[in-house]
Amino acid sequence: MPTTRTRSLLALALAGLITATALPGAVAGEGKGTGKGRGRDDGGGTVTVVASGLDSPRHLTVTSRGDVYVAESGTGGDDCVLGVAPGAPDPVPVCAGPSGAVTKIGRDGGQGRVVTGLPSLAVGAEASGPYDVEVTGSSKLVVTFGLGNPPATRDALVAEHGRDYRRLATVQEIRLRGKGAPRFETEADLARHETRRNPDGGLLDTNSVSLARDRGGWLVADAGANAVLRVDDDRVRTLAVLAGGTTEFPPGSGNPFPFQPVPTSAVRGPDGAVYVSQLTGFPFPQGGAAIWRIGRDGTPRVWASGLTNVTDLAFDAKGALYAVQISDVGLAAETGLPSGSLVKVRRGSSTHTTVLDDLPAPFGVALSKDAAYVTTCAVCAGGGTVVRVGLGR
């Protein structure tokens, strides 16, 4: 493992790439066919914006009723301590605040935040806060919170600015109580697990970015720890640690350059194995990401390759796998807001079917019947959206 701070978390992937808070070249309204923000191949159908004005929308979920819930990582705040920016040699200010939220998009089309005031931490312009949400029952959410920093940064925020920041780098159960304040209960402390176990043996770093139901427990992808975790009965254990890789960098130099794996989502597949999406760390090589499969022996193996900077994945009812690429050319090659796509992944292949391209900084995907819901502008304050993509089955 590297001994310098090159652990390329999502914070490094997104920091410095934010040049707008709107949707340049984004989908607007509806459309069919190919071109900017349009579906193509695989029967791509109508594209509709179903929510807008979101602050750094990340992962999302669709309930059996057809409601969509979105985790908004927020914009940080004014409570600052010295922390770490990936790649920076010296400590930098990281600033937190209660700007995280969860938004509900009703099946009737209504949009509103059901929980606000959730902790959010920003390194520069890129925020870590609520990263994923699941719904259990009519009034209970389960939310995973990122950090994108060593656990010591959270400790400093708690010591200097209050105990609400203990929710960073945790899984929280949130009970909604009408007009009353929501009730929180900690399901898992991922920062504590990183401190005690340090799954990948590198520098202490945690960024719990995804959440999925799993046989009475939860699967969590920790992009900072390079690990897939399982939460069960308030216990956390490491299910697997992904391997990094090497790429030529700078391009044309002939020099092998190591990169971190950076898992971004983990779900139980229809065959009982766990499938994991991979962002990859700096220099974010085009075609260098994969979908990994973790079978009964616990060993991660590449299931599909040739992908680029994958941030989420989801299986449909027929077992087909869809994934979101936040950038199609590799984040290091982007000069502004990243442009990515929704793809249908082919098992054992390095080529895949593009369902929708030219999406501005897409991040999460959730499937419902014959449609996919995708978050876009995942690094935009107030400019994030959710689009509904007809899959044309």
3D architecture notes:
Helices cover 6% and strands 47% of the residues. It is mainly beta. The chain has one domain (10-390): Neuraminidase, CATH 2.120.10. The radius of gyration is 19 Å and the shape is globular. The model is unreliable at 1-9 and 15-43 (pLDDT under 50). This is ScyD/ScyE family protein. Residues 1-22 form the signal peptide. Residues 26-45 are annotated as: Disordered.
Largest sheet: 6 strands, antiparallel
Which percent range describes the beta-strand content? over 45%
Using only CA atoms, what is the Rg?
19 Å
The assigned structural class equals mainly beta
- Mean pLDDT, nearest integer? 89
Termini separation = 44 Å
Briefly, what CATH class? Mainly Beta
CATH homology superfamily name: TolB, C-terminal domain
Shape: globular
DSSP strand tally = 28
**Any guess at the CATH architecture?**
6 Propeller
Which spans have pLDDT < 50 for at least 5 consecutive residues? Answer: 1-9, 15-43
Helix content: under 10%
InterPro entries: 6-blade_b-propeller_TolB-like, ScyD/ScyE-like
Protein name: ScyD/ScyE family protein
Keywords: Signal
Region (Disordered): 26-45
